[in-house]
Design goal:
The chain crosses the membrane at residues 12-35, 56-76, 82-104, 164-186, 192-211. Keywords: Membrane, Transmembrane, Transmembrane helix. One of its GO terms (cellular component) is membrane. With 222 residues, this protein is mostly helical. The chain has one domain (42-220). It contains ten helices and two strands; from the N terminus they run E-E-H-H-H-H-H-H-H-H-H-H. It has helices at residues 8-11, 14-36, 45-48, 57-82, 90-120, 123-135, 137-151, 155-183, 196-201, 204-215; strands at 2-3, 6-7. A hairpin with a 2-residue loop joins strand 1 and strand 2 (6-7). Mean pLDDT is 77; it is low at 123-152.
């Protein structure tokens, strides 16, 4: 007896059950959060400002650019090695989604660095502005009001980037855990061989996302 062209014995394996739990449980939790959590408005500065106070946003831009170029190169090598039918697998779509996130993040970080340079200007001007803020409470309040007004305008691309970030986080965890913990330990046949390229496809995306999470301010949004 077969279902969908696959023997019934395949669907009765314990790995299929575990994979289903890994997929269904986070989906239920995500739906619960979507239904119960109130909508939050992120500031545009959360998209390109690092969470570390003394870290210049240029470092986040350089990291995102490096991540995008590295992942695009790995994806290109995978397609060249295995053909376009490699997108039959969920892994490649996840990898492509993370690549798109870093592409959009690079563009927004570049724009944010440009805004940062306009706002702060040369070091002497930045020092003067700092002294003026300390000596003028009214100027401080007005500046804070303007900053709050600007930070609320994330816009379409900002919201898209945040949604990509959240989607990629769940997809990458699902893909890499299933591959390294459930599939790879039982691939004993000669038809499969773990190569450096395959290993990178199932690990680089998680590493880059974790590093980006340690640098960005998206996790600070309540």
């Amino acid at each position: 007896m077969a279902y969908g062209g696959v023997p019934l014995e395949y669907w009765l394996q314990w790995q299929v059950f575990v994979c289903s739990i890994v997929f269904i449980l986070p989906t239920i939790i995500a739906i619960k959060f979507i239904v119960t959590k109130k909508q939050t408005h992120i500031g545009y500065d959360h998209l390109w400002m690092p969470c570390w106070r003394n870290l210049h946003p240029l470092w986040l831009l350089v990291f995102r650019l490096f991540s995008f170029v590295s992942m695009a190169w790995l994806l290109y090598q995978t397609v060249m090695s295995f053909g376009v039918f490699v997108f039959y697998f969920y892994t490649q779509w996840t990898f492509l989604l993370v690549t798109i996130y870093f592409a959009l993040g690079t563009i927004i970080s570049a724009h944010g660095c440009w805004l940062h340079s306009k706002e702060h200007g040369p070091p002497n001007q930045e020092k003067d502005k700092f002294l003026k803020k300390d000596s003028s409470p009214k100027f401080n309040e007005a500046s804070q009001h303007n900053h709050t007004q600007v930070s609320q305008e994330a816009g379409f691309w900002g919201n898209l980037m945040q949604n990509l970030y959240q989607t990629c986080a769940g997809a990458v965890v699902l893909t890499d855990i299933v591959f390294w913990c459930l599939l790879l330990p039982f691939q004993t046949g000669d038809n499969f061989k773990l190569t450096l390229l395959i290993g990178c496809m199932h690990s680089v995306n998680a590493v880059f996302l974790l590093l980006d999470s340690a640098l960005n301010s998206l996790l600070l949004v309540n």
